[in-house]
Amino acid sequence: MTLRSFMKKPFHAAWILVMTWVGLGAQTPGPQGAPGAVHARVASNLPIVYLDSKAPIVSELKNPCFVRLAAPAGADPGETGRLAGVVRIHGATSQMYQKKSFAITLEKPVGLLGMRETAHWVLNAAYVDRSMMRHKLSYDLFRALSGPDGKRYAASSRFVEVHRNGKYHGAYLLIERVDAGMLELQRFQTNDVSHAVIYKAINHGADFSRPDHAAYEQREPDPLVKVYWKPLDQFNRFVSGAADGEFFHPTKGISTRLDIGNAIDFHLLLLLTSNMDGYDKNLIIARNAPTTNAPTPKFFFVPWDYDATFGRNWNALPVETTAWLSNYLLERLLGYPEYRHQFEGRWKQLRAREFSVKQIQRMIDDNARTLGDGVRRNEVRWDTLNGQYPDQLSFQQDIAEMKEWVAARVRWLDREIARRTSGP
Predict the structure, then answer these.
(1) Where in the sequence of the chain do the CATH 1.10.1070 domains occur?
(2) Which of 86, 115, 134, 153 is the most buried (most CB within 10 A)?
């Protein structure tokens, strides 16, 4: 079995992912946990990520690393080899917590655990998310909304366990990064006049009421290669300043600039999950590059940072089931009768399928089964009933609360969406 075929195999609980982080230069095998160590294969219900770093992993500096993959005892180990890369601490507010998230950039794109080939990965610690599944649940829900009118892009992810420098480090979620490859955007070419773009909202000013890009950071093109704000500036100027007649014009208005079906699904995901930190911050907006003799591509939304969902806020405080979440753009769209009709119809359609209480609770149970005994090991490692958390909450209690919260949330949304979309 080759390395490429090994890494393209579909996920199976028997596989263990072994990632050995070492410094630059030649390494020799040593004791487990030392740089260059050849780790023993360990029985686990989850893939395992071994992180061995010669220097401390920090947020300001990317430390060199190598990635090593192997199978558990009794499985074909295959040809794993080493893949060069770098690692740093990932996140902003989450860096205050003891259990850190990690961003990984490999020298070459690699497919891990059945996910697409990419060089960029995130090991999300989910420290304040007792269920450890809020990101995964939200992204999987959005991708499930893909249909004939287009894909709904969201990051793929897999549960893993991490061993760092020879010591158990807890359960994590391995997530692919949102980038041009994931969104199937045209590759950047220096000589092109226009380019595909990805922008991420970085503060609560990203509600589309401002005619600038002050609340965003550029992700595509790479800003170190080309600073490129023109598409977003034009979009924000139009949304914030166009008169209603111009905004809703059938051939020149918002429907020619924004994927309306995507916007509806994105707003409904925000409402379903009650992402208190995601309607004017953390959202990602992207657009492909224009091509000759074709309509200008439309902007579309991509969800990101969904740990503040399903009944908990970013600081893990409980959230009521009765909050309406929106922004200037989404509320302006709801001011148009035809849009309101589409919005209400889509909600009713999803409530009977992807957003049914039964389906969401089934997904919660499936994730809990996949995590299995990794939950107990994580709770022991991080003493999760204590520390930086507003209340004592076990994994089982959080799961039960999430299920109850979802049922109450959709009942309220049924009434609230009907109220807001009624009338001419």
Answers:
(1) 197-421
(2) 134
134-143 vs 260-273: helix crossing angle, rounded to 10 = 150
Query: Which residue, 160, 177, 178, 182, is CA-closest to 19?
Result: 160
DSSP structure class, residue 268: H
Contacts of 91 (CB under 8 A, 6+ apart): 100, 101
Enter the tokens of residue 302: 């991509």
The 8-class DSSP code of residue 421 comes to H
- For residue 420, the surrounding DSSP H or E stretch is helix 395-421
Mark 221-231 as b/e (b = at least 16 C-beta within 10 Å). beeeeeebeeb
Q: Which of 132, 139, 113, 138 is nearest to 170 (CA)?
A: 132
The CATH topology of domain 197-421 is 1.10.1070
What does the block give as tokens for 207?
A: 């509600």
48 and 162 Cβ atoms separated by less than 8 Å: yes
Cβ atoms of 329 and 286 within 8 Å: the answer is no
Give the residue among 247, 194, 207, 199 at the shortest CA–CA distance from 223. 199
CA distance 398 to 406: 12
**Structure-block tokens of residue 11:** 């996920």
Strands 197-201 and 167-176: unpaired
Q: Report the number of secondary-structure helices (H) and strands (E) in the chain.
A: 10, 11
Tokens of 117: 């080939």
- Give 359-365 contacts, CB < 8 A, sequence gap 24+: 360/137, 360/141, 360/406, 361/403, 361/406, 361/407, 363/137, 363/140, 363/141, 364/131, 364/133, 364/137, 364/399, 364/402, 364/403
**Tens of pLDDT along 166-213?**
789 999 999 999 999 999 999 999 999 999 999 999 999 999 999 999
pTM of the model: 0.88
Comparing CA positions, the residue from 179, 175, 284 lying closest to residue 222 is 179
Place of tokens 């070419």: 189
For residue 221, cis peptide bond before it (omega within 30 degrees of 0): yes
Q: Which positions ≥6 away from 269 have C-beta within 8 Å?
A: 138, 141, 142, 145, 275, 303
Burial 204-214 (b: 16+ CB within 10 A, else e): ebbbbbbeebe
98-124 per-position pLDDT tens digit: 899 999 899 899 888 888 999 999 999
